[in-house]
Amino acid sequence: MTCFLPPMPPQPGPPTALPAERPKPSRRRQYAQPAQTPPSRVATILRVVAERYGIPQRAMLSRSKLPKYQRPRLVAMALCRRCTRINSEVVGEAFGRHRTTVLNAERTVARRLSIDPTFAAELGALEQTIRAGGPV
């Protein structure tokens, strides 16, 4: 047997406001934008790597996944970690990426170093140039 309750009488006073509608969360990932002024050592590394690969620095900071931009970006992130004492979070902020992307770049470069001697020589030359303060 079902019990039905009579409807509640209306309450005197102002009408109750409906709760504010929350904006729907975006399905797209939200990434940080590149830092406006990256730390000076990171800026030096960006300049050296961009000159070596013949691409603009802005391209390395872009969202592009084209190999001609992605590979130098990974190299620059890995060199930032190897040549400075900057943690992965700060490097990620400088590149507009998450810190785990920087860690992945380190692993990718280390893996490639172990199998490609030409890449190892190239990275060594870049590292020496960076430690010397970049090209004049």
What structural class should be given to the helix and strand makeup? Answer: mainly alpha
Please, what is the CATH homologous superfamily of the domain at 40-130? Answer: DnaA protein, C-terminal DNA-binding domain
Number of helices: 6
Classify the fold: give the CATH topology of the domain at 40-130.
Answer: Chromosomal Replication Initiator Protein Dnaa, Chain: A
Strand tally is 0
Secondary structure: helix percent: 55-70%
Cα radius of gyration in angstroms? 26 Å
Whole-Å distance between the termini? Answer: 91 Å
GO molecular function: ATP binding; sequence-specific DNA binding
Protein name: Chromosomal replication initiator DnaA domain
InterPro entries: DnaA_C, Trp_repressor/repl_initiator
Pfam family, one: Bac_DnaA_C
Structural commentary:
- It is a single chain.
- The radius of gyration is 26 Å and the shape is elongated.
- It has a domain at 40-130: Chromosomal Replication Initiator Protein Dnaa, Chain: A (Orthogonal Bundle), CATH 1.10.1750.
- The protein is built from six helices and no strands.
- α1 (40-53) runs antiparallel to α3, α3 runs antiparallel to α4 (88-95) and α4 packs across α5 (99-115).
- It starts with 39 loop residues before the first helix and ends in a 5-residue tail after the last helix.
- With 136 residues, it is mostly helical.
- Residues 1-17 have a biased composition (Pro residues).
- Residues 41-109 form the Chromosomal replication initiator DnaA C-terminal domain.
